[in-house]
Design brief:
Layout: H1 15-18, H2 35-41, H3 51-69, H4 71-79, H5 84-109, H6 115-145, H7 152-179, E1 186-187, E2 192-193, H8 200-219, H9 225-228, H10 235-259, H11 265-288, H12 290-294, H13 331-336, H14 344-360, H15 371-379, H16 391-399
Helix pairs in contact: 3-5, 3-11, 5-6, 5-11, 6-7, 6-11, 8-10, 10-11, 14-16
């Protein structure tokens, strides 16, 4: 019979020692049960669809349907002008909202917990951020530096420059997201990472830089540089800049809080992320395109015919295009500068009356009215819709 004698030197395991395994337990500064983290990965019951994707999908899908409903109208308006800036802005808006909708739909159909699904989801987030950032910088750069270079070459240069900058930003963000994911966005219970925007340090640094840039732009009109730079004068442009400045300030505050372990910072970055990925593209459309696309064709077509001699033939000619007048402003001026060129009421009522008055007066007595401006307004409309107006007949009466 073997008798086991107690060993005084032998340690008896306690509850505290049993709770300390050799493997270090993973640590996350934000509990998975916290609502602001739970909303990022919680799935709709009996599906693999995450609530966060639905929150971002619904506004983007509604805006895409809005663009589809007004596509024919937009196409006709774009055909009526050859200005490349409208094509560029409208193309960026369409690409942004389409990519956002595709990202949400694909993320809903893949398993983010799988390795391949996680990489696909990260790649789609980076792609959406790339196009949004390109649009964000293009609008600002064109407004500040290229406002009077309304040509295809200047548009290409701006888009190329912003695309390269956005590409560098997106590659850095993607590399950090894949090789150094933020622990705050790790879901240990399901063993996968949700998209963390490159980590809180990267997000904080980039948000601070963008905030400073937008604050400087807001200050420029009150500096001496306003005399050297032809700054935009439209109030909506500066409201757009103010929106981005406040958004980036909030993002820098939220990411900074989360970086230092304040879990409430995650709620801040969630709100700013939702606002940016759902409202930014509609904001660009409303600020820079809604006025152009919102003006309808004139309700009263030109039918005025001046009195001429019986032996003189009345010829009807089509109005020249806007680019025939070198003294006219470019369309980019009417996007960034204050004006009422797209006021259809002004177009309908003032233009015929002014032309009629000029036919009754001598050339020396005509003051206070610019025929070039009226013709520019007319050139923005569809050429096929302008009939019954004779430019030659008006010229004859002006010289009589």
């Amino acid at each position: 019979m073997v008798v086991f004698e107690p060993d005084e030197n032998r340690m008896i395991p306690t509850a505290s020692s049993l709770a300390e395994p050799n493997v270090t337990q993973p640590f996350s500064p934000v509990e998975e049960e916290l609502f602001c983290k739970l909303i990022l990965y919680i799935e709709i019951p009996n599906t693999r669809i995450r609530a966060w994707d639905v929150i971002i999908l619904v506004p983007n899908l509604l805006f895409l349907l809005f663009l589809a409903f007004r596509f024919n109208r937009a196409r006709l308006k774009l055909r009526a002008t050859s200005s490349p800036i409208f094509f560029a802005f409208y193309g960026l808006v369409l690409v942004n909202v389409t990519i956002s909708v595709v990202r949400c739909l694909v993320s809903m159909s893949v398993n983010a917990a799988a390795i391949v699904g996680g990489y696909v989801d990260t790649f789609l987030w980076i792609t959406v951020r790339f196009f949004l950032l390109s649009t964000e910088m293009s609008v600002v750069i064109f407004g500040l530096a290229f406002g009077h270079l309304d040509s295809r070459s200047s548009i290409r240069y701006v888009l190329l420059a912003t695309s390269l900058l956005s590409l560098a930003f997106s590659i850095s963000q993607g590399a950090l997201e894949v090789f150094a994911p933020d622990e705050s966005f790790r879901i240990h219970s399901k063993d996968f990472n949700i998209f963390g925007h490159g980590g809180m340090l990267f997000w904080f640094s980039s948000s601070v830089v963008f905030s400073l840039i937008y604050i400087v732009i807001l200050i420029l009109p009150w500096t001496r540089l306003r005399e050297r730079l032809n700054l935009p004068t439209k109030k909506s442009f500066y409201l757009y800049i103010l929106f981005l400045a406040l958004l980036n300030i909030a993002q820098s505050a939220g990411s900074g809080m989360l970086f230092y372990g304040v879990r409430e910072g995650l709620c801040v970055v969630d709100i700013t992320t939702c606002v940016y990925f759902t409202l930014f593209t509609p904001l660009v459309y409303h600020t820079f395109l809604s006025e152009f696309f919102g003006v309808s064709q004139p309700s009263i077509m030109f039918s005025y015919k001046a009195q001429v001699d019986d032996n003189m033939e009345d010829d009807t000619v089509s109005l020249p295009h806007q680019q025939s007048f070198s003294s006219l402003k470019t369309d980019s001026d009417y996007i960034y500068q204050s004006n009422s060129v797209y006021d259809s009421t002004h177009f309908d009522s003032v233009m015929p009356a002014a032309l009629y008055n000029t036919s009754l007066q001598s050339p020396d007595s005509i003051t206070g009215y610019s025929l070039d401006t009226a013709l520019y307004n007319t050139s923005l409309q569809s050429p096929d819709s302008i009939t019954g107006y004779s430019l030659d007949s008006q010229t004859i009466h002006l010289m009589s």
